[in-house]
Give the backbone structure.
Amino acid sequence: VGGDFDEEFRILRPDGTIRWIRDQGFMVRTGKQPGRIMAGLANDITAAKETEEALRDSNEELEVFAQTISHDLKAPLRAMEAFAVALGEDYGDSLDERARTYLSLIADGAARMDTLLNDLLQHARLGRSLADDRVDLGAVVTRVLEGLSPQLTDRDARVEVSEDLPVVWGHRSLLETAIQNLVTNAVKFVPEDRRPQLSIGIQTDANAHHLFVRDNGIGIEPNHHERIFSIFERLHPREAYPGTGIGLAIVKKAARLHGGDATVESTPGQGSTFWLTLPRRAEEGYRAGDAAA
């Protein structure tokens, strides 16, 4: 009694329509005299509630789509790949070179489609049940580099990591996914005759942490800097640089789910710097050892 309040409820209007109302009240002092009065504000939030419900329905449809990808589409794809491989192993000697090539193309096509479906599934499920926690970016980067060790070793990549990566407030697995995609991308787009040189670091200002991944790759023309973050966007033939065109879209979505953004600075022929911006929050200020790794 006598305190502030903030409530949402429905009302039935005389014309039979239902509206959502947000009712807020707060105590205000009355000048120099002792005592307070209650001030209030009532807003019609029906449109916002309808949007919220539509978004919830859309998310449910997206979950059905994700389950369809996971089960109904991938099962026959795996069977097709397995039978193509089995045909090649069991009857390869009786087939001519063209037939063996066709079988190889079938198996490779099925494998690429499986990778595409996995990436689509990851993109569709990104951000579900998002729960924030303190995250040690240094530990996340270490884990990413350990997981990518075979690819980095295969390219003899040199990776420099800043020692002052901070503890941020966010979702560990989303950040790990985003950084993994950035590192994978950085190595992929370095020409084969050039040793990959990567640098991972941080710039922090009053409002945000700006994590960067810098490479010495082929670079990106300025007119493509926005386009590359769209889903399925590819600037190069698959034969030259394999991939599904979803990785950077995942990075952008992960950043925006944190209230931040993903951008790029690049000089064609010299390399690129990808930025992952994460807004700072009042809950920060913990030691790295206290954070979720």
Notes: Residues 286-293 have pLDDT under 50 and may be disordered. The chain is about 40% helix and 25% strand.
